[in-house]
Design a protein that fits this description.
Length: 409
Amino acid sequence: MVAVMPGPIQRAAAAITAPVHALADLLLVRRGPYARAFDNLILGLIIFSVASIGLESIPGLPDWAAQALHIAEIVVVAVFTFEYLLRIVAAPNKLAFIFSYQGLIDLLAIAPFYLVGVDARWLRALRLLRLLRLLKLQTHILESVVEQRTRELAEKNAALEEAQAQLKAELEVARSLQLAILPSSFPARPGCEAAARMIPATTMGGDFYDYIELPDGQIGLVIADVSGHGVPAAFFMAVARTNLRELAAHHPDPGECLARTNDALCAQNPLDLFVTVFYCVLDPQTGRLRYANGGHNPPYVRRAAGGVETLSGAGGLVLGAMVGAKFPTHSVQLLAGDRLVLYTDGVTEAFNPAEQLYGAQRLVDEVHVHGGGTPAALVERICQSVTDFADTAPQSDDITLAVLTWGAP
């Protein structure tokens, strides 16, 4: 078969129709960036054309106004004709479009202006149908945009939920690791028994407790409360615990140990957090307890006879706030059967639904009435008492307790 080369007429026709096809594809098929502007132009011209029918019917309309409306109508019809031709070009089945409802409306809306000597003015009202058709098109476009945006929003929500689930899973792992670094048992010493618990208010907490085995068989006991909640407090808690544990082995005096720990925390505290710390050292042989307080709640001593005392030496500066702070060391003699009760303010500052505080007195009453049992039983009793008091109120702060008994029979 011999290929037939296009002649000059065919090439000229192709050169003319190619831009028209490209424009129809851009505005009506693929709906490029100017498609919405073109739709709005047609909508505005339809509204103007319909309004001009009413203006032309005004009695005594000046000649210049009638002439202006006539010229404007010629421009409008020219644009409508151009759009009609574009739609024919863009239609896959051109005859089907021409004889379709939409095609006939488009044709009848412009045909009267090409009929010479025929008063077909009433046919111009067909543009109202064209307006309805275009409004329907605009509604369809709007529905498509809403559907697309809804789909995009659903996809983003799904991605967000997946990211939140992953973050939650990672935080749960971090929570497990944080709780795992806290000691689960007290160092074995004859006549000594202890128990502790930390209940974070959020996924991760800023409270901690620790048991530290020191030279000469002595035992360090720590309870602390980092300012704030969540991940920042948890990281600062880990830093504070690590520094205190390392320095305790080299500084047997509790006050000196807190002073060194404070200086270390001040040097590595970009978020300006602080921590309250109560640190004591127990001699299991004699029951002598040496301690220093860095801004923490003063612990209670429940004597074997049932009385409850508050340890002196309360207050002191928190750790991580000021370099060079000093922390005096105090001492107290424990007697056989005495119990040392350490706690954070998450216990005494727990709220109930009526926004009442649990308070120190309720804690003292629990220690006095139920302090004769094992340390684990007393910790459980106090935690349950706080839970019952709070009822449906959310936990506002980390809750940490530690109970030490010396000279138990």
